[in-house]
Design brief:
By secondary structure, this protein is an alpha+beta fold. The chain is built from 16 helices and 22 strands. It has an 8-stranded antiparallel sheet with strand order 13-12-9-10-11-14-21-19, sandwiched between helices. Helix 4 packs antiparallel against helix 5 and helix 7 crosses helix 8. Bound molecules: adenosine-5'-diphosphate (ADP).
Length: about 475
């Protein structure tokens, strides 16, 4: 096992990884930007190295600075967390080249899944169903139109290098497709320095269901069940739960097998997530694989009792998985609400600033993974997620009641957060019945506005 690792990240995930290190008896090194000097991850780690200015391009994305920090502090491995450099194949290669273990998959697997067009092709060949769409990238208006006419409208144009819901546009007819083609390309160029786009059939009211994978170096690949991440705004996840309310034993078997096949097809090692869309008929289609730990990993941890971050570290250190698929059980229901410093009733405008007062919920079946405290100033430079509230119980109803209770206990004064929106979602009768799709939040917000039920700004502020 490693003696010392560096965490190339910030926020709640850096704190989460430091906790796993402490429990494994591993010393941890934090890196931080000048804006994060007062951060919790800096205070909790055994050592900390400042790696640059506030903008992530000047710090958390600077490979040379991170490698220098790793060498100066003499660590054996780097955990990249999520976001930043976690899916950067070049960074993984540089780490290996410097004799530092990258706590994640081999760079070849990151690369194979990083280009979504190539990943679709690999999946098709491996017999994993993909959403009907273009055979490769679409490089002209004409090609986009031909594909759309073949598969039928509506279609979605997506960026080959995409992520975070960017570079995606839906089109319902020829004129809107031509417009979507150009906007998606320029957005993709700006966000990912890669204008390549492709076309998929736009599935109506699907569910986003993903499978957590663990794979060791010996080639053992297992799954830890699914997470339903259909509660989204602008194609970004807001709330996740497991098991999915629509899951059956049969469907889990089929999707789990496909997820394992997907991981095997790219020689996957470590933790990863295979994402699918499921249509109304229960047919499922691969959309992408995230080759890193995910924000929503605690949901699976609370259902299965497996510590995914510790497993990532153990696998990177060369240990084998100590169990097989048949040992994985799903005895609990867990649900996670992402707490973002955003105003959900004002177009999700970011709301950075000082947290004047914080009270975090507790009690049976409640877990809070976060990095803020009373008096902490949220810098405006990074992602607006400040924490995650996870509630779990033996059945879904109790988990939901617990979440409702915990959301009521959560007090964050000084900024606006997504807490009031989560309260509405948890109370919603359709959500409680498990009847929802990726359009649920948009519809909920529309009805709220139309009915004049919108909460006042003051109410969101004192959530
Ligand atoms: P990103 O990598 O940007 O997160 P994904 O491919 O994972 O993009 O898709 C994110 C979300 O966008 C999905 O969860 C879903 O809500 C929506 N989406 C993506 N592809 C489709 C599709 N073909 N049909 C309907 N919705 C889609």
């Amino acid at each position: 096992m490693f003696d010392k690792i560096l965490i190339a990240n910030r926020g709640e995930i850096a704190v989460r990884i430091i906790r796993a290190c402490k429990e494994l008896g591993i010393r941890s090194v934090a890196v931080y930007s000048k804006a994060d000097a007062d951060s919790l991850h800096v205070q909790l780690a055994d050592e900390a190295v400042c790696i640059g200015e506030a903008p992530s391009k000047e710090s958390y994305l600077k490979i040379d600075r991170i490698i220098s920090a790793a060498e100066v502090t003499d660590v054996e491995a780097i955990h990249p967390g999520y976001g930043f450099l976690s899916e950067n194949a070049h960074f993984a290669e540089v780490c290996e080249g410097c004799n530092i273990k990258f706590i994640g998959p081999p760079s070849t697997a990151i690369r194979a899944m990083g280009d979504k067009v190539a990943a679709r092709e690999t999946m098709r060949k491996a017999g994993v169903p993909v959403v009907p769409g273009s055979d490769g990238p679409v490089t002209s208006e004409d090609e986009a139109l031909k594909t759309a006419r073949r598969i039928g409208y509506p279609v979605i144009i997506k960026a080959a290098g995409g992520g975070g819901g960017r570079g995606m546009r839906v089109a319902h007819n020829d004129p809107s497709l031509i417009k979507a083609y150009h906007t998606a390309r320029s957005e993709a160029e700006r966000a990912f320095a890669n204008p390549t786009v492709y076309v998929e059939k736009y599935l109506e009211e699907p569910r986003h269901i993903e499978f957590q994978i663990l794979a060791d170096r010996r080639g053992k690949v297992i799954h830890l069940g699914e997470r339903d991440c259909s509660i989204q705004r602008r194609h970004q996840k807001l709330l996740e739960e497991s098991p999915s309310p629509i899951m059956t034993g049969d469907l889990r078997k089929k999707m789990g097998k496909a997820a394992i096949r997907a991981a095997e097809a790219v020689g996957y090692v470590n933790a990863g997530t295979v994402e699918f869309l499921v249509d109304k008929n229960g047919d499922f289609y691969f959309i992408e694989m995230n080759t890193r730990v995910q924000v929503e990993h605690p949901v699976t941890e609370e259902v299965t009792g497996i510590d995914i971050v510790k497993e990532q570290i153990r696998i990177a250190a060369g240990e084998e998985l100590g169990y097989d698929q048949k040992h994985i059980e799903f005895p609990r229901c867990a649900i996670e609400c992402r707490i973002n410093a955003e105003d959900p009733f004002n177009n999700f405008q970011p709301s950075p600033g000082r947290i004047d007062f914080l009270h975090v919920p507790g009690g049976l079946g409640v877990r809070v993974d976060q990095h803020v405290y009373s008096g902490y100033v949220i810098p405006p430079y990074y992602d607006s997620m400040i924490g995650k509230l996870i509630c779990y119980a033996r059945d879904r109803r109790t988990a939901l009641d617990r979440m409702s209770r915990a959301l009521d206990e959560f007090v964050i004064r000084g900024i606006r957060t997504t807490i009031p929106l989560h309260k509405m979602i948890i109370k919603d009768p359709n959500f409680r019945r498990g009847r929802y799709s990726t359009s649920f939040v948009e519809r909920l917000l529309n009805t709220t506005t139309q009915a004049g039920l919108q909460l006042s700004s003051d109410e969101t502020k004192s959530s």
